[in-house]
Amino acid sequence: MTSAIRVAIAGPRGRMGQEAVLAVAGVNDMQLVACLDRHVQEEVIRPISVAGQEIPVFYSPSACFAETHPDVLVDFTNAHAAPSLIDEAVAQGVRPVIGTTGFPEDFLQHLDRSLKSRELGGLYAPNFAIGALLMMRASEIAARFLSDVTIVEYHHASKRDAPSGTAKKTAERIERTFLERGVDATSPLIHSVRLPGFMAHQEVIFGGLDERLTIRHDSMSRKSFMPGVLLGIREVMRVTGLVDGLEHFLW
Question: What is the pLDDT of residue 40?
Fold first, then answer.
């Protein structure tokens, strides 16, 4: 019988982190072994109770990895704190599954090199919702036939980055399709909305001669991301290097 994947989660007090804790603790092929919380100063703080278990919470990444030996680190922190945490994880042989966005491209390139040098897998996923990935795929298909497009993305008021990672990746894929077609089309214009009352939503609007095509995805709660998080944890155990986007595990 295959051993359960040992998982540590960084950012367990955040909204995504809370859902990830519950998701990992709720499946049989994973074991939640630790959480990392950099908002406290003690080396080990009060454990988290989940599914009848007491999960230790660490401030120090090195102590966490040395004492609990996770296979995978799930990161839902922020673009300021995450790079040093992820570097420490890779140095300790821990595979990162990264939901934090807003990294510069050179950090992702550095991470890919580090993972390959240690023969480890990693995942950087701007969006873990399966429906959002299908929206991006459908937008690529539409861009083969329509050349006028705008992206509108809506998120909760506390989301820090704008445009979102999903919107930027959608625009990159549409632009790549335009280049493959050899058409004179510019990169899609992105409009970012940050207001109370939204969670995570995106429309890709194509315009044609007397017609309009709208491809829209809505995440009504953060639970919508959890099947993708679990898929990412499983798949990074089978790859080497950084996989940029969960869709590479789908098609």
Answer: 60
Among 110, 159, 201, 217, which one carries the catalytic annotation?
159
- pLDDT, one tens digit per residue, over 19-51 is 999 999 999 999 999 999 876 655 447 788 887
| 155 in active site | yes
Of 155, 169, 201, 217, which one is the catalytic site residue? 155
**Second-level CATH architecture of 5-127+223-249:** 3-Layer(aba) Sandwich (3.40)
Looking at the DSSP bridge assignments, the partners of residue 144 are none
pTM of the model: 0.89
Surface-to-core class of residue 18, CB atoms within 10 Å of its CB (0-12 exposed, 13-18 middle, 19+ buried): middle
CA distances to 33, 79, 89, 167, 244 from 231, in Å: 18, 23, 20, 22, 14
**C-beta separation of 78 from 213 below 8 A:** no
User: For domain 130-220, which architecture applies?
Assistant: 2-Layer Sandwich (3.30)
Going 29 to 34 to 39 to 45, the CA torsion angle's sign is positive
Tell me the C-alpha distance between 219 and 46, whole Å.
Answer: 32
